[in-house]
């Protein structure tokens, strides 16, 4: 049976930066308050780009780093909660078209919020190991600025735009060792974009009420996130007979520095093991983990064979963890 390996990683962020000082002029907040509560100093905001544009730019680089051509890709899966269009076409279909793949490639979106990239890994792993596909392009792409209310200081300080992409291919080494995903829909209203679906169709009333924006009960989400993320990692490590010392890099979802620190301390990960990017990107939902992997890859920390532990929690609620050995070339060896 073929093994699935993550053989490349890439990311893209739009040029515009929205700092905490910019937000001071938009809502009642301060740089000190935001940094203390979240660890975020700035986030990138797309202006004339849409989600598929962000995803395409990350995807092109991921394919190049995998030393493949777009025509070698036989499946594209995009995780997003800010798709180009409400229903159709999927953002993955538009990315496929942007890559020149207009016939013969499987393309679809998933919606798992901030856990999206973990779900993508599980899907790609299954497609590769079943023999159904050979090279699967997975993309977490978000233009969260399009669903953020910039008069709501509880959410507008948190979110940014960006995309991360990876190629998962059949390989005899450095495989994706294990992926676990789960959900609990009973608490979905604690982190939700209520409107413009079948529950609250788009009309003047739903738009005037801001139901097209992200709504979050921050304190409740924080408590559930810390507990769930910690348990998810413990379960995954135990099931694979590993400890924190066996992990080269712990790469959690980049939502809030307080959540990350709480989970890191409970799991006994060192500062050197933990990859942090929340300060410069904010929360980019499904793009968060691949963007963080890419940062550690481009600065030379992650190398071929590095053992990565990924952990995420998001709206739904959804959560998941993954353990993998990075299967790509070292960054300094890329052509």
TrEMBL record:
Record-given protein name: Beta-ketoacyl-[acyl-carrier-protein] synthase III
Cross-referenced PANTHER family: 3-OXOACYL-[ACYL-CARRIER-PROTEIN] SYNTHASE 3 (PTHR34069), BETA-KETOACYL-[ACYL-CARRIER-PROTEIN] SYNTHASE III (PTHR34069:SF2)
Function (record text): Catalyzes the condensation reaction of fatty acid synthesis by the addition to an acyl acceptor of two carbons from malonyl-ACP. Catalyzes the first condensation reaction which initiates fatty acid synthesis and may therefore play a role in governing the total rate of fatty acid production. Possesses both acetoacetyl-ACP synthase and acetyl transacylase activities. Its substrate specificity determines the biosynthesis of branched-chain and/or straight-chain of fatty acids.
Record region (ACP-binding): 254-258
Record-linked CDD domains: KAS_III (cd00830)
Pfam families: ACP_syn_III, ACP_syn_III_C
Keyword line: Acyltransferase, Cytoplasm, Fatty acid biosynthesis, Fatty acid metabolism, Lipid biosynthesis, Lipid metabolism, Multifunctional enzyme, Transferase
Active site annotation, chain numbering: 114, 253, 283
Native source species: Campylobacter mucosalis CCUG 21559
Record field: transmembrane: none
Ranges where the Beta-ketoacyl-[acyl-carrier-protein] synthase III C-terminal domain occurs: 237-325
Reaction(s) this enzyme catalyzes, per UniProt: malonyl-[ACP] + acetyl-CoA + H(+) = 3-oxobutanoyl-[ACP] + CO2 + CoA
Subcellular location: Cytoplasm
GO biological process terms held by the UniProt record: fatty acid biosynthetic process; secondary metabolite biosynthetic process
Any one GO molecular-function label of the UniProt entry: beta-ketoacyl-acyl-carrier-protein synthase III activity
Catalytic activity, EC: 2.3.1.180
């Amino acid at each position: 049976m073929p093994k699935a390996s993550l053989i490349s990683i890439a990311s893209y962020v739009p040029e515009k930066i929205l700092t905490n000082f910019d937000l001071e002029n938009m809502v009642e907040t301060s740089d000190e308050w935001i940094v203390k509560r979240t660890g975020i100093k700035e986030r990138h905001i797309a202006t004339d780009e849409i989600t598929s544009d962000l995803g395409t730019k990350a995807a092109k680089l991921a394919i190049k780093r995998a030393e493949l051509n777009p025509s070698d890709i036989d499946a594209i899966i995009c995780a997003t909660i800010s798709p180009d269009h409400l229903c159709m076409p999927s953002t993955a279909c538009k990315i496929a078209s942007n890559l020149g793949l207009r016939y013969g490639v499987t393309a679809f979106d998933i919606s798992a919020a901030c856990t999206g990239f973990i779900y993508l890994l599980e899907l790609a792993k299954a497609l590769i190991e079943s023999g159904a596909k050979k090279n699967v392009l997975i993309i977490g792409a978000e233009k969260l600025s399009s669903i953020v209310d910039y008069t709501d200081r509880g959410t507008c300080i948190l979110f940014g735009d960006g995309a991360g992409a990876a190629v998962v291919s059949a390989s005899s080494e450095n495989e994706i060792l294990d992926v676990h995903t789960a959900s609990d829909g009973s608490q979905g209203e604690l982190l939700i974009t209520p409107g413009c679906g079948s529950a609250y169709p788009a009309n003047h009333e739903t738009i005037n009420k801001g139901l097209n924006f992200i709504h979050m009960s921050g304190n409740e989400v924080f408590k559930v996130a810390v507990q769930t993320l910690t348990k998810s990692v413990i379960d995954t490590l135990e099931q694979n007979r590993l400890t924190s010392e066996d992990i080269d890099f712990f790469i959690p979802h980049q939502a809030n520095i307080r959540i990350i620190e709480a989970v890191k301390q409970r799991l006994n990960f060192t500062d050197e093991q933990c990859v942090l990017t929340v300060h410069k990107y904010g929360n980019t939902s499904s793009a968060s983990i691949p963007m963080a992997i890419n940062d550690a890859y481009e600065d030379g920390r992650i190398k071929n064979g590095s053992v990565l532990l990924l952990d995420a929690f998001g709206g739904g609620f959804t959560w998941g963890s993954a353990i993998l050995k990075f299967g790509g070339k070292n960054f300094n060896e890329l052509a």
